[in-house]
Every structure is written in C-alpha cells, then in structure tokens.
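Example for reference:
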Amino acid sequence: MKLEQNDMSMLFSTTPISDLFFTEYLSESNGDFIKVYLYILFLSKYNKDIKVNDLSKKLALNFKTIQDALKYWEDLGVITKKNTGYILNNLQEMELHKLYKPRLSSAINTEETNKNKYRASAIENINNSFFQGIMSPSWYHDIDLWFKKYHFDEQVMIALFNYCFERSALHRNYIQTVAEAWYNNHITTFNDLDLYYQKQEKLNKMKKDITKKLGLSRNLTEYEEEYIKKWMVDFSYGLDVIELALKKTTSKSNFSFDYIYKIISDWYDRNLKSAEEVKQFLIDLKNKTKNIKALEKKSYNNYEQRQYEDLDAMYSNAIQAQSN
C-alpha cells in the first residue's frame, strides 16, 4: 500500500503531531494502534510504498493487529482508504468540520443546514484572517459557545474578532468582555452593530465637546462618562440642551457633574424635550422669580410703613398723656 500526506515535509525533518492527537485520541486508543499510527505518520512524509506484512515485521506486531489498527483509525476518520493505500487526514481540519460542517443527512431543515454553512464559512474566515490558518482547536469550542450564548450572526462574530484584533487584544477574556457588552446593547445582527457604532461615535463626540466647553484639561472619569451617556441615551438630549446646563457652571469656581446632572434631571422630569422648551422654561422661571421678589419687596415696604404709623401714634398718645 502507498501512504500519502497532503503536505510533504523535507527529508530528515521532524514529524509534527497535532495536539489534537493527544487531547482527542491518545487516552482512548490501544497502545499498539497508537504505535501503528505514529509510524505510518512518519512514513507518509516520503510517500513510500509499504505493505501490511512489512509493518508487522517493522513494528513487531502480528498481521491482525496491524489490520485492526488501520480499521480503527479509518473508522475514526483519521485515515482514509484509497485503492492504492491510505491518506492521513489533517486532525485540525477534521475537528473544524466536525463542529461546523453541515451534516446534510441529519439536518433538521434547510434553514439549519444553511446556518451551518454560514458558520463554517465564518470560522474559516476568522481562522485565516486572524490566526494565519493555524487557530488552536480550543477556539472552535469557544466560538460555538458564543454563537449559542449571544445569538450573534456570522458577520457580527467576524466583526468581534476584527475589533479585538485591531486593539492587539486577541485573547479570550477580552473577546468575552466585548461580546458581553455587545449582547447587553442588544446586538445580534450586523445592522444592530452598525447602529451601535453610530451611537458610540456620537457619544464619543459628545464627551469631547463637553470636555472642551468645560475647559477640562484631564480625561473624564468613568462616572462622569456615565452621566453623559445617561443624558444622551436615556434622556435623549443633544448638545444644545446639555450646553444650557453647562452654562450654569460659569458662576461657580467649583462644580461637579452631579450638580449638572441635577439640573438636567429636573428638566427631564418636567418633560422638557428640546432646547427651545428649556429656554422658555428658564425665561418663565426668571419672570416668576422677578414677580416673587417684587411681591416680597412690596409686602416689606407696607410692613415698614405700618410700623412707622404705629410709632407716630404711640408718640402722640404718649405726649397727650403727659399733658393731662
């Protein structure tokens, strides 16, 4: 029989063994079967013809053991029988297909089959784009888990890896954190992600504008950024409304975002939705304040006048009493 391998190594090179062999096959395989596999893996580099009888002599194993070993590996898909011999299959590629290749015979419906095809394409894209085609098998399990947990479509999953790759943070903890954040922001489709990016871009611009208008020479703290996010996302206020609140800080040497937040929250509670409504409210409030002050002043003057009149009467009564 003839042994072949897709990638022929140079003469006298080492024989690479996939880590998958140790994690998936070593512990469950017969020692003699492992012995046969390792030897034919070594021989396959040189495309040598070898007979079962020769293997029996070379490995000091009986003929039946060699046949059983070849059948064992063939049943597992590790080797494929041909008319001229066997092909040793790539264990990583096998694992990839096991997880993502659509199984037409067991597919429940066409929709599920198509979904598997798209995911297989996505995982291949991730492998080639971010891992140079040598992604560790453990990533396949993680990606499959993230598909199920976060319900991302294939474009979002690729975008997730691209986002982390561009930040030189292509490790599981960081990817998991970003995926969790996207999920919490209700991102499942690429359209959702696009809208999220647009909101983030507007939010970042808002932060820069507010920092500039307040004359801050430092970065905003995490808590200050949360205030701005609440004004923009929860209250749906634009910079035109927020700037009206920022102007309230000009008379204060020391101010806090909590002070600005109280002002803006008050406007929101009053159901003021636009800058025009806020301006009108401030005008009305100013006029109301003036009226109150005028009323207080009038009341004060009347009170003072009554005091003086009472005083004059008191003195008149006192003088008349002395005359009598």
Observations:
- The chain is about 70% helix and 5% strand.
